[in-house]
Amino acid sequence: MLEIALGSALMYYAAKEAFDLKQQPPGTIKYAEVLDSRNDSFVRMHQEAVQVRPAIENQFRGIVRQAYDYSCGSAALTTLLNGYVGSQLNEQQIMNGLMKYGETEKIVERRSFSLLDMKRFVAALGLESGGYRGEFNDLIKQGQPAIVPISYAGFKHFVVYKGYKNGRVYVADPAIGNISFDEQRFKDVWENNTLFLINVPEQYRKDFLAIQDQDLRHVEDSVINRYALADIQYPQFYMDKIADKASTISKNRNRNSESENFGKFEHNFLRLYYKNK
Length: 277
Description:
alpha+beta, 10 strands, disordered C terminus
């Protein structure tokens, strides 16, 4: 009787460890790793629930993605209002507001929004704002996100400055997502040293645009430059020598009439190559 009870308990324990019947949040996967086999244990596999998300979610975390090629201004303003002021607006609402309170005819003519259009719309929301010109240190000392125009890859574009840390400038780009520039590169693309700020009382400010650990996961430009053009670790003749050792040797007569070893027997290395169909 005791043996039956013990066997039932062991079967229940094994089944419980093998099948997790608890309902898991969407996007949860099971990560399994082998425990140290030298330790006595009924469980040889350690399992842990890990939530995964598409990379694009983090890429555009906290950013309102622009819906049109020319709507970077409205998307950047929506991102700033939602992430710093705490509003819950979408880009279409911002575009309608910019068209209503901005210079409508000029907007249609140039197919883009200006900082003046943004200032008028933000004023209609009851907030103070303004466009300024300053040095790079002025942008950092503000200690708050700001809309900055950049000239990048031949295009003029609005992005949201998020912060500066360890020589890099972090921005929320409505077209590309969360990206960063090294300090000098940002200074090169920053258009006319212009920035657009919204004045919000400190107690009402939101930090949805603050720099997070995910933003710091980038590869330094110097690292890319150092390794992108690096020579291979082993010379080709050494790799050929290793391949020859791992190949099958066949003894054949040299049939090349132009060779010094014509008519003599030589050892040929028959290598096997594999490829995916």
